[in-house]
Amino acid sequence: MSASLSVIILAAGKGTRMQSAKPKVLQSLAGKPLLGHVLNTCQQLTVDETIVVFGFGGDQVQDQISRDYSEHRVTWVAQTEQLGTGHAVKMALPHLPKDGQSLILYGDVPLVSQKTLTELQAANTNGLSMLTLTVDNPFGLGRIKRDDNGLVTAIVEQKDASENELAICEINSGIYCVDNALLHKYLPKLSNDNAQQEYYLTDIVKLAVADDVVIATIEPEHAFEIEGVNNRQQLATLERSWQAKLVEDLQVAGVQFADPSRVDIRGSVTAGQDVFVDVGVVFEGDCKLGDNVYIEAGCVIKQSTIGNACHIKPYCVIDNADIGAGVDVGPFAHLRPKSQLADRSKVGNFVEVKKSVIGTGSKVNHLSYVGDAVVGDNVNIGAGVITCNYDGVNKSQTTIEDDVFVGSNSSLVAPVTLGRGATVAAGSTITKNVDEQALAFGRARQTQKDHWERPTKK
Ligand code: UD1
Ligand code: CA
Question: How close is the Cα of 352 to the center of ligand 2, in Å?
Fold first, then answer.
């Protein structure tokens, strides 16, 4: 059996500088709470136990995370007073096995990658590995001290550092992989005899070195992986770094962005070849795009699949929809959850579709509401047609069979079925089923009064 892997996520800080009623680790990056990113990354590793050390706003954090990330089994550990990172990890000790390893992560450092953590774990051959980075401006961060042989000897915090130590540009990310045996041994020994009177987790490095533990270091692939969030500016900067990375991955996969800096991906996008995405498009949840999909400006696309060669015209909102191949949508169309558009169908401007199937080659081109409907193939739904699916209490179904033609400005009062090949005259209110191939009128006959004189003002 391989040694166990635990993850300890420190998340007790208040995040005062966010100026928010929300605990910092619940602030959103790319549509997901900071802590959610860390949990999702951990899920890609083989983790035996995930411990979150919480403090400020603990109830709120536990409520939201247990609800939205219920697939993660989290052990919650309270740290009522924030006495330092060493103290925070010490709170987790009762939950840590005597052997095995722990990854130490942070609820406000959301973007560390699975690849980096796997490498960090592999680098821990002697008891302790850490993630460091050489940066231009190390201000505020712990500095990595090395001896003449280049071996790590200690981490010195900014506030405790000498002039010489301040000149060191290799910084501590705060992310480590440590043998649990070392944590059990060293954490009870930490003191707070330093400039900040905190129990520094970083002091375990000195203690390990004194025990002849050779400390391994690795660097992350991307600098943003170790960046933390303390204020709104840093949150926005990190959001941009992450967006740039997601866009770059898609560019490598063959997607053309009109402007890579004017698109947001709040979730994941997979795409085929020769996809074009214009400015101001927002993707949410998990979206799948086929080949040759063309998405114009200002669309919001959430948790949807869009087939090959679809054309999504400007300013569409597409939410939980499944769109076949060669479909045209918009401009200004609203596809609400459980909309299914079959191949070569068309949903045009100011059309709302909800929980409906639009069959192959069928068209709903202008100003319509189609809800709770099953529309067959080659149907034409004229401008302004409404399915009246709601009587104030119940939702009812409209069935429109293949080859039906619904004239403009008709109301289809559900439940109702229009049989195959039926025609509905424009302006009809249809309350009864229409037979196959029949023509239905549901409107007053036109009458005429000749030589009509309009009333005049006295
Ligand atoms: C820490 C490291 C520093 C490193 C830096 C990287 C120490 C002593 N220093 O410094 O070497 O360069 O991170 O960002 O570890 N936290 C708790 N409980 C506490 C204290 C902190 O949960 O009692 C959490 C905070 O919420 C935060 C994280 O630990 O997410 C880091 O704490 P912070 O006090 O900001 O450490 P730094 O001073 O940044
Ligand atoms: Ca910090």
Answer: 47
